[in-house]
Amino acid sequence: MVENRKLITATLLGVAIAAVKAPFTFPVTDYLIIIEVPILALSFLILGRGGATLTGVVNGTLQSAVKVSFFPFDLIFAASFGILVDVFGTVLKVRAGEIVSAKRLMAAMGLASTVLGVGITYLFLALNLNPGVDLSAYSYTKLLSYVYAPIVVWGILSGVLGGFASARIWEKNLKARFKSVQPPVS
Questions:
Q1: pLDDT 10s per residue in the chain (186 long)?
Q2: Residue 100 phi, psi dihedral angles, 5° rounding
Q3: Residue 99, class by beta-carbon neighbours within 10 Å (0-12 exposed, 13-18 middle, 19+ buried)?
Q4: DSSP reduced 3-state for 100
Q5: CA distance to 53, 71, 129, per residue, from 5 (Å)
Q6: Residue 100's beta-bridge partner residues?
Q7: Nearest by Cα to 18 from 75, 73, 69
Q8: Could you tell me which of 52, 115, 172, 181 has the fewest CB atoms within 10 Å of its CB?
Q9: Which residues have C-beta within 8 Å of that of residue 105, sequence separation ≥ 6?
Q10: Rounded to whole angstroms, what are the CA distances from 100 to 117, 163, 184?
Q11: CB–CB of 102/168 below 8 Å?
Q12: What are the DSSP calls for 32-67, one per residue?
């Protein structure tokens, strides 16, 4: 029964992310991470370790079905984001029993979104997956300041804001509802 609830919850959360991000491609999807961050953080809090990964896989599968030309990338990036959320959430001990540390959740989400944003941008630029961008016009310094710096800033900002929003939503609305479903993360 618990596994069915976990799968249904992860599916619903993954569908919510895909509904927002699937119609768009890089770089617009990088800015829509502000929607994805709190949903993945809540899936980690609600479902425990592996919850964000499961939600990310559902999201990536749905986005891959819509954007077939980016098939392996959408699935890999969405699953990777879920894995990063689960790893950073566990390593930083975001949750101790019934207590969720908003600061640690903000740090975990900031790190996860920044690492993923830089990784996606690097891969897209290195493989020239966005043919509308001519990289030969940019020096290394300009590439860092015009391309990577905004991604890092947006990754940190969206991660911190999404982590804060998730912690508030968890404490004010969801904690009491999901007590019996979630085992404590140690």
A1: 558 888 999 999 999 999 998 888 766 777 888 999 999 999 999 999 999 999 999 999 999 998 887 788 889 999 999 999 999 999 999 988 778 999 999 999 999 999 988 888 778 777 766 656 666 666 667 766 777 788 888 889 999 999 999 999 998 888 887 764 445 555
A2: -115, 125
A3: exposed
A4: strand
A5: 16, 28, 38
A6: 95
A7: 75
A8: 172
A9: 41, 45, 89, 94, 163, 164, 166, 167
A10: 25, 11, 10
A11: yes
A12: THHHHHHHHHHHHHHH-TTHHHHHHHHHHHHHHHH-
- Distance CA(32)–CA(26), nearest Å, equals 10
- Non-local CB neighbours of 158 within 8 Å, separated by 6+ positions: 33, 34, 37, 113
Query: What's the burial of 114, exposed, middle or buried (CB within 10 Å: 0-12/13-18/19+)?
Result: buried
Length of the chain: 186
Place of tokens 């699953």: 79
- What's the DSSP call for residue 27? T
